[in-house]
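From the shared-data thread, chain only:
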Amino acid sequence: MTKISRRGFFKLAGGATAALTQAPALVAHAAPAPAPAAHAGAALFFNPDEMRWIEAATERLIPEDDNGPGARAAGVPVYIDRQLAGAWGAGERLYRSGPWQPGEASQGYQLPFTPAELFRNALRGAREELQGRKEGSFETLPGARQDAYLESLQNGKQDLHGVPAHVFFESLLALTIEGYFSDPVYGGNKDMASWKMIGFPGAYASFYDLVDQHGVAYTRAPISMSDNGAGVIHLHPVSTQHSGKRGT
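Structure, as tokens:
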């Protein structure tokens, strides 16, 4: 069987992801939440330790290679931070009244936590787990050891302050993929690098002028929802009270 690299996997999955972003294990249908223009380098949700963890973990999930940037350079940690800081992170569209019991796989997310609570609890649990093993912080581990720990989360059932390890991993992976292929207005996919990599045209409203052209290669650069036509992305302030999870 021919093996496929992680980058190859994302290239194959990217076209579908850009058009219909894979939903996390939490909730998928909410209104857009653009990333803020002011203080773009400051985290809105993560504390410094959490942000270092997220930066290291997402970079292991989508590493830099000859095809394109890794998750960190593409702004994926910023995307995740913005989502958790907004209404989606607060669970404004989640049912929150219980009862909280284990459900079947077909029933979807069954935990009492909002997305923000899930990440905060799980990150605290993951840090304590590694410290209990005398391994220090995740972000300081060698790459191979980081991969092994992420795999232990993916396949494990350990409790991370109430969050099953595999639920946390699935949510982290889904948000990482979303951030890598989302419209740049949401903080990720910096310079539309992933769209250029997979040949996705971006947020065009109409291809009317091209419908009668046949056999002509489509070579136009991708465009963001907030592109001014010259390749400059204008970000808009996000309300942490009324913003929801973004769409592509």
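The longest strand covers residues 159-160.
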